[in-house]
Structure prediction request, 221 residues.
Amino acid sequence: MQVLIISVLLGVALGQGPRPTCQEDAGQSVGFVFVGGKQTEQKCCKKQETVVCEPDAWYQPNQASSSAECESQGINRADGVEGKANIMTGSNGARVPICAWFKACEFYNPKNECVASQLGGKWRADTGILACGAGGCCKWEHKSLVTEQWNTWVQASGSCPTGDSDPNQVTGPYYMPGTDDGEASICVKEADGWKLYEGLKPINVQGSISDSKCLNGCCAY
Prediction:
């Protein structure tokens, strides 16, 4: 199983809705995130897309202020959540601190010219910001790697909105209530109107050893 320790961005997933990609010009060490073919101002590291690590990570929502405090608590793995922090329930913009442990892995930080460094292999006290989709289903993002631009979309039931906007539209990640074996359809607002994406299946964004895709009734698509 291939797992990114920290997901700077998601690559294009076949059969899924449009997703951000990292593009670098020749000779550049740092690239920019493109959404729907348009460049954003968010910097990224192309090398991070190919980083793979063993799926050995877990975390616990926790108010600890340091790695040492996390370690001193003697947290049991059985009391945590398998995988890396990602799917959570909450409200958009909420700050959620955690204690996290995961295997050491290479990390390329666009704020450090994408120079390789090592991340993990010990306890970390981190804080993330929630970016929410539909139904209170959110994506936990590290406070230093918050996505600056999301697509606007709405859950679909066979057809897309005909107007410029919809009262149920969401600007955020493709996260919504669902089950591991379920499917979803969404309409994404693009430059020429709404586009329907049908039969989307949940994807594993947590990298847990159990290979579960959804958590607490919420899934990523």
Remarks:
- The chain has one domain: 21-220.
- Residues 1-15 have pLDDT under 50 and may be disordered.
